[in-house]
Amino acid sequence: MEIRTGFPFRGKDLDDLRAFLAHNGLKYDERVGFSICLVENERIAAAGSLDGNVLKCIAVSKDFQERGLAAGIVSGLIQEAARGGIFHLFLFTRPENEPLFSSLGFYTIAKTDEVMLMENEKNGITNFVASLQNRNTKMTANGAGGKTGAIIMNCNPFTNGHQYLIESAAKQCALLHIFVVSENKSAFPADVRYRLVRAGTSHIPNALVHPTGPYLISAATFPDYFLKDSVSPCNINMTLDLAIFAEHFAKPMGIRCRFVGTEPFDQLTAAYNRRMREFLPRYGIEVIEIERLASGGKAVSASRVRELLAEGKTAEIRELVPPATFGYLTRSGTEVLEKPLPAGNKKR
């Protein structure tokens, strides 16, 4: 059997892979950077692809089901990831494939009726969440009915709007967990965004700031979040991401409410908020929406700050961001934006 690889495939090889996946009920993902196919007599018998640290688009033809080809595909993808220095891997598949991939060393994180996410580290997500709890053992949800809340935000960069949302949420609960997206697919690096949130919330005694790691709003759980104009195809990803939050973060951390800001600009985030209101109450988690802060009759947004920064209008930025963010932007903002977001991307 012949092994064919593409970085990714082009031309006829890509057309053949698309057709093979479609025949097996899958759609080729344009984000993949590497694909491997096992071919016999010019027919694709099995295939799989790698998107960063995520294994996806894995299929075996029904005519070759009993030959252990899935193991060969997964092995090839793991080897390619290792060549790139990536060892913690995630696998995106259908729930009915759980026994197969469990036998190949992957462990289930969460699944919905349509999709499942697995990883190759046993108890990986459990240990990650435990590490967040261990960092903050001294703070407990006392008072205010003992309510514990959460906010997940990108903060690209951290604005007065984000600060207002956090302050408003903190008044409604005894303990507030703030999760800052760790994925490095935004204009501002993850470590910068995290530090600016820490600085901008240091005056809030009942707020804790955490990274999301690879488990919330990440390339593994919700890749469409970082793309322009990706609304209709990603309801599956939204539900999976919310299931991970509810089962692995909210439950052990005692989170009973999640706060979001109203979203007048970004259609994808607005759709995510709607799905959140539909889904999280099933787990006893209340979704509380807070009206966004306005300045000069306009909602304060991170996208507006990025636009002003690109235009060199730093004086106007001062009214939209906390002192720590303004200091950072005026000191090194032009360097941060050396790789700007695609036009139209308005992730907060």
How would you describe this structure to a colleague?
- The protein has 348 residues and is α/β, with parallel strands linked by helices.
- It has two domains: 2-122, Aminopeptidase (3-Layer(aba) Sandwich); 125-336, Rossmann fold, CATH 3.40.50.
- It is built from eleven helices and 14 strands.
- The strands form three sheets. It has a seven-stranded mixed beta sheet with strand order 1-2-3-4-5-7-6, sandwiched between helices. It has a five-stranded parallel beta sheet with strand order 10-9-8-11-12, sandwiched between helices. The protein has a two-stranded antiparallel ribbon with strand order 13-14.
- The chain is globular.
Would you state the CATH class of the largest domain? Alpha Beta
Global mean pLDDT:
89
Counting DSSP E segments of at least 2 residues, the number of strands comes to 14
Q: Which sequence of SSEs, written as H and E, runs from N to C?
A: EHEEEHEHEEHEHEHEHEHEEEHHH
